[in-house]
């Protein structure tokens, strides 16, 4: 094996003991856990079968994000294969209705004549809404993965691996994976004429959801993502094929990065701009002309979303420029800003001001909500937890999160967060990039042999992060900007007979504290990746950081 020491180090970094090495490197679909171990699966399975046999109207109610929408497509696939047509789909408006079931939606389901509602990626906290459905004679099957509160809704069935009484061995499934398990359970008992194993063609949706929802890519999620990517590379869906063509993606070599950086934003753009059903239609349509129309439509919406975000960022920077001093943690917002877009605004401000950023707006119910993003590996969840009395509620993880806050607490939120950041830093609770577990290599090591070793650990994501390589004393050969707007950076190094490119999107030579010039020796932190842009395979580095040697 090439690079045996690096290989063993990567295994150790992931906590993979020798007995688990085979399962990790060669995921086995047959080792997925038994779907019948999920709580209430028998009741959920039998209720769906009964609804189909009795021709009851079923409403599929999914969340509006890139987990819920692919999950709705998983059920759509199932009903199309069974030729069951007495169904409809409901995806709530992100701004006007918010997350989960709502009473107005229950009324609409009743008007449709629903006898059964199946939720995807939501519902576990919707006690009043489920009670309302029950009162109207509508059974509710909740499929969700979020952690339940102390009291659960009195639904007909609650299929959730995170229930306290759950004996399911793996707790980290995304919402689409849970509903995929429901489909598996149904067809195992009653095929409705569907050929055995056909549900596997829906794994492309499960992969998109698993990669988009930032669940840990370990255990079952690694199996689902690996096999789901395989399906995605062969998927005949007209919507996906049209999207790949529009984005110049090589379907045969799709990677997890293609999903998270190219596909996910366009699914989420639909809900951020108020038309989540359009993303569902794109992924579920069987009509090529409709697919092409929807791709153009979603691309237009995504560009509009970019324009709105750019306007919000410009507005935020204008206000920050007027401040005498910028705090260690930035808190900024406006009641006119929509919370759906504020995570993207926070990302831009983090890049500009190099510090954690909290951005707030007001949702359709008048509640002040926002998103936050980290900088330099500061643990945002620890930061919010240290300032918990300042929030109505908060959640997230080290790099990103969401929060709601009262107008009264906004007045000194920035000061409180900045003080908490200082205290956490002094307590050494914040991990910096200098302790990232980077692996030292030389420019001459970069090639197909190294890539062959690294790619065995893919797909990468949360819980299985891409390896960071440290390349000391790398001599810059050339520096240039690229892209339609010249807003990306390319630094070239010489590797014997071949140049090696290192790129950084939405970056420039001015992004660093010193000039990047030919001949300068730097310490480079980077990921190794293979790009297939415009069907041209290219091994390259993705810059994480540049430190002057």
Description:
- The protein is α/β, with parallel strands linked by helices and 549 residues long.
- It is 39% helix and 19% strand.
- It contains 18 helices and 16 strands.
- The longest helix has 34 residues, at 288-321.
- Residues 428-436 have low confidence and may be disordered.
- Helix 10 packs across helix 13 (288-321).
- The chain has helices spanning 4-13, 21-25, 41-53, 68-82, 103-111, 127-135, 175-189, 203-212, 219-232, 238-246, 256-272, 276-284, 288-321, 342-353, 380-386, 407-410, 413-426, 448-454; strands spanning 57-62, 87-90, 114-120, 139-143, 157-159, 330-333, 357-362, 368-373, 393-396, 400-404, 439-440, 469-482, 488-495, 498-504, 521-531, 538-548.
How would you summarize what this structure contains?
The protein is of the alpha/beta class and 549 residues long.
For the biggest sheet, the summary is:
5 strands, parallel
Mean pLDDT, as a whole number?
90
Contiguous uncertain segments of 5+ residues: 428-436
Shape: globular
As a percent range, the share of strand residues is 15-25%
């Amino acid at each position: 094996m090439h690079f045996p020491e690096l290989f063993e180090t990567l295994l150790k970094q992931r906590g993979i003991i020798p007995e688990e090495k085979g399962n990790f490197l060669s995921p086995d679909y047959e080792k997925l856990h038994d779907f019948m171990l999920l709580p209430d699966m028998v009741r959920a399975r039998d209720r769906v079968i009964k609804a189909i046999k009795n021709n009851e109207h079923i409403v599929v109610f999914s969340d509006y994000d890139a987990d819920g929408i692919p999950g709705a497509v998983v059920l759509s696939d199932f009903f199309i294969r069974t030729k069951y047509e007495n169904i409809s789909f409901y995806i709530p408006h992100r701004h006007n209705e918010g997350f989960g079931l709502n009473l107005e939606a229950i009324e609409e389901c009743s008007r449709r004549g629903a006898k059964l509602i199946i939720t995807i990626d939501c519902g576990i906290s919707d006690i009043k809404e489920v009670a309302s459905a029950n009162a109207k004679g509508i059974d509710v099957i909740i499929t969700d993965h979020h952690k339940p509160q102390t009291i659960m809704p009195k639904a007909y069935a609650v299929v959730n691996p995170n229930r306290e009484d759950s004996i399911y061995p793996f707790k980290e499934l995304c919402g689409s994976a849970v509903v995929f398990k429901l489909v598996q359970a149904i067809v195992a008992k009653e095929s409705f004429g569907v050929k055995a194993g056909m549900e596997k063609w829906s794994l492309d949706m499960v992969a998109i959801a698993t990669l988009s929802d930032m669940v840990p890519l370990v255990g079952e999620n690694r199996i689902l993502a690996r096999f789901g990517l395989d399906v995605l590379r062969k998927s005949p869906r007209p919507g996906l094929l049209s999207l790949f063509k529009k984005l110049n993606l090589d379907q045969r070599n799709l990677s997890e990065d293609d999903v998270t950086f190219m596909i996910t934003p366009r699914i989420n753009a639909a809900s951020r701009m108020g038309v989540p059903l359009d993303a569902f239609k794109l992924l579920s349509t069987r009509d090529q002309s409709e697919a092409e129309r929807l791709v153009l439509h979603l691309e237009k919406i995504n560009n509009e979303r970019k324009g709105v975000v750019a306007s919000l960022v410009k507005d935020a920077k204008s206000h920050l420029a007027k401040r005498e001093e910028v705090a260690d943690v930035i808190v900024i917002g406006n009641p006119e800003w929509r919370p759906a877009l504020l995570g993207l605004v926070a990302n831009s401000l983090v890049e500009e001001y190099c510090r954690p950023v909290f951005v707030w707006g007001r949702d359709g119910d008048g509640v002040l909500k926002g998103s936050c993003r980290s900088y330099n590996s500061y643990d945002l969840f620890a930061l919010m937890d240290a300032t918990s009395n300042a929030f109505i509620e908060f959640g997230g993880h080290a790099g990103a999160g969401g929060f709601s806050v009262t107008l009264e607490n906004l007045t000194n939120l920035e000061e409180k967060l900045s003080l908490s950041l200082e205290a956490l830093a002094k307590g050494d609770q914040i991990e910096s990039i200098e302790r990232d577990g980077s692996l030292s290599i030389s420019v001459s090591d970069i090639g197909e042999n190294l890539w062959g070793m690294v790619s065995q650990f893919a797909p990468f994501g949360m819980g299985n992060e891409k390896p960071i390589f440290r390349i000391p004393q790398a001599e810059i050969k050339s520096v240039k900007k690229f892209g339609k707007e010249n807003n990306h950076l390319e630094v070239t190094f010489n590797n014997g007979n071949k140049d090696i490119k290192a790129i950084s999107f939405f970056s420039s030579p001015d992004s660093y504290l010193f000039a990047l010039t030919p001949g300068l020796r730097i310490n480079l932190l980077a990921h190794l990746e293979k790009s297939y842009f415009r069907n041209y395979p290219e091994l390259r580095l993705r810059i994480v950081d540049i430190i002057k040697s």
